[in-house]
Amino acid sequence: MMTLRDEQLLSIRVEIPNAKVDQSTLSLESFQNSTLRPISKFQNEMILSIFNKYIIRYKNVFHKLGKEEKLKYIENTVKKDSKFKNLIRGIFMGHFTLDEYKFYSENSSEVNKRIINLTKERLQSQLDHFEKHSA
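User: That's the sequence. What structure does it adopt?
Assistant: Structure tokens below.
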């Protein structure tokens, strides 16, 4: 049963035309394309802001690195810093409908990996954002 909250959440979801979902799509891939990717896109500014604050908290070490080191820094932060990972997961989970949360709770390990990978890719693909905001 769809709640008012579920309807409101779905109404603000961003459409991602190339995130195809059909009968042949596996359930985890379908969840990633129909739920995680739209949430990731919707929450992009928040994710960038959180990582920007992370950079500042750790004394702007990020800005002293070369491009390859910056990509590795992002990967290490997203994959190994448990506080950062939990914050990112919460950002996604707060946008789940009740049915999506049920799916998440049954597949949390795999969904968490997908959330972290989406976040890593999103941050790495927007390196220039952090150059503009380093001042």
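The chain has a mean pLDDT of 92.
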